[in-house]
Amino acid sequence: MFTPQAIERFRNPKNTGDLKRYNAMAKAGDPSCSDVIIMKVRFNGDVVEDAKFKVFGCPGAVSTTDVFIDLAKGKRIEDALKITEGEVSDALGGLPTAYMHCSNLSMEAFQKCVNKYRKNKR
Predict the structure, then answer these.
(1) Which residues lie closer than 8 Å to 112 by C-beta, 6 or more apart?
(2) Pick from 109, 107, 115: nearest CA to 87
(3) CA–CA separation, 107 vs 49, rounded Å?
(4) 3-state percent helix, strand, coil for the chain, nearest multiple of 5
(5) pLDDT averaged over the chain?
(6) β partners of residue 43
């Protein structure tokens, strides 16, 4: 069902854990499948410097969030906000259709972090 890339990301995610220094933290969840993501992001000006996540969820939620963070790191905020579920899926070698929505959780959590960061910068 899942590709070898998605299974590897699920078993050995690179971006889980706690981020000691961060500018924003947000939670996103999908009540229909009980997945919940907590994301912390450290911004440096308008660049995504680092991010970590904790998740209660399925292999799709873990693998898509892990790869989303890799795709976002080092990008300008505006470019990271443009990451699509298709790009996340492609980076995992594809996702089963039933799990495509998982990538939206990481995007939602990231958007909330950006909003908090921008609000606090004012």
Answers:
(1) 24, 26, 27, 28
(2) 107
(3) 16
(4) 45, 25, 30
(5) 93
(6) 48
Backbone φ and ψ of 19, nearest 5°: -110, 115
Strands of the sheet with 24-30, listed across from one edge: 24-30, 35-44, 47-56
> What number of residues does the chain have?
122
Residue type, 86: G
State both tokens at 102.
């998982």
Where are any strands of DSSP class E within 5-103?
A: 24-30, 35-44, 47-56
**Which residues, at least 6 apart from 117, have a Cβ–Cβ distance to it below 8 Å?**
23, 24, 41, 43, 77
Q: Per residue in 30-62, pLDDT tens? A: 767 788 999 999 999 999 999 999 999 889 999
pLDDT of 26 higher than 90:
yes
Q: Is 2 helix (H, G, I), strand (E, B) or coil?
A: coil
Q: How far apart are CA 45 and CA 107, in angstroms?
A: 20
* pTM metric for this prediction: 0.93
Name the residue among 84, 109, 102 with its Cα closest to residue 6. 102
